[in-house]
Amino acid sequence: MRQTNKVFHLAIPCKELNETVDFYEKLGCKLARRYDDRVTFDFFGDQVVCHLSPDEVDEAPNMYPRHYGITFLEKGEYDQALESAIRDELSFFKTPMVRFEGKKEEHMTFFLVDPANNLLEFKYYHNPDMVY
């Protein structure tokens, strides 16, 4: 189980800082720091750093094996994130779907793609025992 005194850190490439800030702020992430070559966000309680590196952008991303995101423990928060993504016209990589329907690990999910083609998954498990 997660300790509340720890913060996960992820560093990813970005193409352009302004569009990156716009995207992540629309997700509800707080801009923590900005430098000439990177921006750091409070990403739902964890730290995501987007490094300006346009030559490192994946031009044809796939969901597997590389993506990151949030697993919501409350369905209302998942619904709110989905509604916000639709309202703010964020780019969907995969529209909302149910995975593993009828099985213990059934969950609702959708994927967004940020301006540098990083893939973000947002999901909610009906059975909280399946989160980990």
UniProtKB/TrEMBL annotation:
Pfam annotation, one family: Glyoxalase
Coiled coil: none
Domain VOC: 6-125
InterPro entries: Glyas_Bleomycin-R_OHBP_Dase (IPR029068), Glyas_Fos-R_dOase_dom (IPR004360), VOC_core (IPR037523)
Protein name, per record: VOC family protein
